[in-house]
Amino acid sequence: MSIRVHNVSRRFGATTALEPLSLDIAAGEMVGLLGPSGSGKTTLLRIIAGLETPDSGTIHFGDRDVTRVHVRKRRVGFVFQHYALFHHMSVFENVAFGLRARPAAERPDNDEIKRRVRHLLERVKLDSMAERLPAQLSGGQQQRVALARALAVEPEVLLLDEPFGALDTRVRVELRRWLRHLHEEFGFTSVFVTHDQEEALELSDRVVVMSDGRIEQVEAPATLYRSPANRFVFSFLGETNRFEGEFHHGRLVNGEAWISVDARPGAADEVLMRPHELVVTTEPDEMAHLPARVDAISPVGSDVRLELSAEWMRHPWQVSLAHHEHERLGLERGSHCWLRPTRLHRFERS
Ligand SMILES: Nc1ncnc2c1ncn2[C@@H]1O[C@H](COP(=O)(O)OP(=O)(O)OP(=O)(O)O)[C@@H](O)[C@H]1O
Asked: What pLDDT, in 10s, does the model give residues 125-175?
């Protein structure tokens, strides 16, 4: 089921939660709404769900205009951050709930309900816990029940609001995998809200980056990361090192530090770099003169993270190095070094 959001806007008193915005989601696509707190993600999700009415604009599911259609008639499944399971009902009954609540004419018979619920519980590997109460499950297991419950009614659209927000990192990663597999097996269209960049980039076919009630960019994860449309998207997607200065003879200069870059009309007096876009050296370079001091060294997974400071930096910089590179350089806390950017990002002045 495709979803078309056309010119939708929403205000709450003096607050503009959504500027008029449009978004097309293809059938079977998984789309992540990513943005800082207050950017309008939940409002947009709730409007798609039918839990909120837009001030203007229309929502279509396929060819059907659902703008004025009640939430119960939209055939959407929901998963929210707080499990919202029925605590007095077993896992089995929680998953069966949506089927039992259907009007008699549409309700499957008991055997069919059993079959479907069993199948879903197997899919989320909870078949051995069907008779337990939610309180007897871990947070991650409860959220898997919530997923199974949302899918029991065979929704064409699944909407998830920070579904894994309350769980610890390892469980989150595992649940993302569940969701991705279920999405592929059942073929529904999914829209989920997150403020976690990694989650959005890992799960989505396309990411919708929002700020201040607007859509900043809609793009597949790899393209989004490589080609952010503007400074906001760049900064929001990951750690950012910023060099600001004044242009002098082909250099951007800040005190004793400089980087070779052309002055460009309209460009801000700054360049940005990701932590992996800097090389640490033991002497200055002809393209850049960036002396720094190592303040902290932390091995993180496959990389070593350095935190660096210098008088010309407004905030400490982060640099990531391969372990062998770090060993070769022999850096310690307090060591002095030089930095050479391998890539510079520049955006229009905002
Ligand atoms: N029911 C409401 N009444 C008044 N203001 C609201 C209401 N719902 C949302 N807002 C405001 O609309 C703006 C967008 O809120 P929304 O919840 O959509 O953002 P969000 O991106 O989902 O944020 P978060 O990540 O914190 O949940 C915010 O400024 C919020 O305070």
From this structure: 898 999 999 999 988 889 889 989 999 888 989 999 998 887 788 888 888
What values do phi and psi take at 157, rounded to 5?
-130, 130
Backbone CA torsion sign across 332, 336, 338, 341: positive
DSSP assignment, residue 73? Answer: G
CA angle 141, 207, 69 (to 5 degrees): 75
Write down all domains in the chain, each with its CATH number in brackets: 3-236 (3.40.50.300), 240-341 (2.40.50.140)
Distance of CA 115 to the CA centre of its chain: 34
CA distances to 215, 218, 260 from 227, in Å: 16, 11, 22
Residue closest via CA to ligand 1's atom 3 equals: 12
Ligand 1 neighbours (beta carbon < 6 A): 12, 15, 17, 35, 37-43, 195
Q: Contact, 346 vs 299, CB < 8 A? A: no
- 38-77 pLDDT tens trace: 999 999 999 999 999 999 999 999 999 999 998 888 889 8
Distance CA 37, CA 21 (A): 18
Closest atom of ligand 1 to 10 CA is 12
Pairing type for strands 336-341 and 317-322 reads unpaired
Tell me whether strands 251-254 and 257-260 are parallel, antiparallel or unpaired: antiparallel
Q: In this structure, which residue's CA is closest to atom 2 in ligand 1?
A: 12
**CA of 230 relative to ligand 1 center, distance in Å:** 24
Q: Tell me the pTM.
A: 0.87
> For residues 161 and 173, what is the distance between their CA atoms, to the nearest angstrom?
16
H/E element holding 233? helix 231-237
**Most informative mutation of 5, 9, 10, 12 for ligand 1 (most atoms within 8 A of CB):** 12
Q: Determine the residue of 11, 39, 214 to mutate for testing ligand 1's pocket, defined as the one with the most ligand atoms within 8 A of the Cβ atom.
A: 39
